[in-house]
Amino acid sequence: MSAVSIQGAKPIHPMMPSPKPYHKCKSYASWSASAHFENMEFLNFYSKTETGASQSVICLNPTASDGIAPHLFVNTKFTNVMPDALAYIKAPDPGWANLKDCVEFPCTAPLNILFDFKKT
After folding, report:
1. What's the CA gap between 96 and 102, in Å, rounded?
2. Which of 2, 10, 32, 63 could form a disulfide with 25 if both were Cys (CB 3.0 to 4.6 A apart)?
């Protein structure tokens, strides 16, 4: 799942169980952030798991509505990764359109992403 940089985040190490998914964003995005990943290898990814669930190497945080930092991958290996399992990029949620934040337009973070691969 994509990394996010937000203004108000939960602690890195949870101290107690949360009733909501831990990856849920509850704050505005921070600007000028980036995510760097080096020497990663992804093995045996298919678009469906053995139980029929969808999976992909890369997906966006489903609650990141207003800013996804550029992601830089260096020396990344894809071993036995099917093309349809490489990435899942969801369209912006129409429910994100609200008068307080985005007026008539949904926040468009899923349409404005950069995943850069060097030496891959």
Report:
1. 8
2. 63
Cα distance between residue 43 and residue 41, in whole Å: 6
71 contacts 35 by C-beta, under 8 angstroms: yes
Q: Rounded distance, CA 36 to CA 42, Å? A: 16
Tens digit of pLDDT for each residue in 35-47? 899 999 999 999 9
d(CA 74, CA 120) in angstroms, rounded, equals: 7
Dihedral, CA atoms, 8, 12, 14, 18, nearest 10 degrees?
40
Report the DSSP pairing between strands 77-81 and 41-45. Answer: parallel
* Dist. CA 120–CA 108, nearest whole Å: 28
Q: What are 37's two structure tokens?
A: 């990943």
Going by the DSSP 8-state scheme, the letter that residue 51 receives in this structure is: T
Q: Which residues contact 28 (CB under 8 A, 6 or more apart)?
A: 6, 7, 66, 67
Distances in Å between the Cα of 48 and the Cα atoms of 53, 59, 78, 79 are 5, 14, 17, 16
**Domain locations along the chain:** 35-118
pTM of the model: 0.73
